[in-house]
Design brief:
alpha+beta, 180 residues, globular, 7 strands, 24% strand
């Protein structure tokens, strides 16, 4: 990545919010942040081992006191498509532009990685629409790429492909896509 890559957002804004790459010590904070959403079946729960194994995909938003108040990850699926996943905020920080900063940082990461399209599966349609995401229906990959992706054991890939085995967890979610 360029010099401005993952650290381009590594400055506190006027409200003291810092968006930075996640580190292993953030996993308990990620679990705390996603727990209310998992309880409401908005996000899929993740085991600690999965979070530690994918920590390099995550960004953390810190409040002015240094405590994590938001998280989000970018998972690359194929050469031109990635998914924004596990985007969650502390309830006290909703509607304070923290989610917008997180999403902008993840989109920046996607551009740095050479990804042209970003997918999300969400209940927050208006939020993502404000950032240029459009609702999609059928798969947006070619049949040969689909055949490769279907081999993945990653639940996010299964959601992206709209496989039946994830239907109980994703009922009601909207599939959205943004071209970078």
């Amino acid at each position: 990545m360029s010099e401005h890559g993952r650290h381009a957002f590594h400055e506190r804004d006027e409200h003291g919010i810092l968006v930075r790459p996640a580190v292993a010590a953030d996993v308990p904070h990620i679990q705390r942040l996603i727990a209310p959403y998992v309880d409401r079946r908005i996000l899929l729960g993740k085991e600690n081992v999965a979070l530690y194994g994918s920590i390099q995909q995550f960004r953390i938003a810190e409040g002015p006191d240094g405590v994590p108040i938001g998280c989000g990850a970018l998972a690359v699926f194929w050469d031109d498509i990635a998914e924004v996943r596990t985007l969650a905020l502390d309830g006290d920080w909703i509607h304070k532009r923290v989610g917008h900063r997180m999403l902008e940082a993840l989109e920046h990461d996607a551009r740095e990685l050479g990804v042209a399209r970003i997918f999300c599966l969400t209940f927050e349609v208006d939020f993502f629409a404000k950032h240029g995401y459009l609702e999609i229906g059928e798969s947006v990959v070619s049949p040969d790429v689909y055949a490769e992706l279907v081999r993945s054991s990653d639940e996010g890939v299964a959601e992206f492909l709209d496989l039946a085995r994830v239907k109980p967890n994703t009922l009601g979610n909207t599939r959205m896509l943004k071209i970078l």
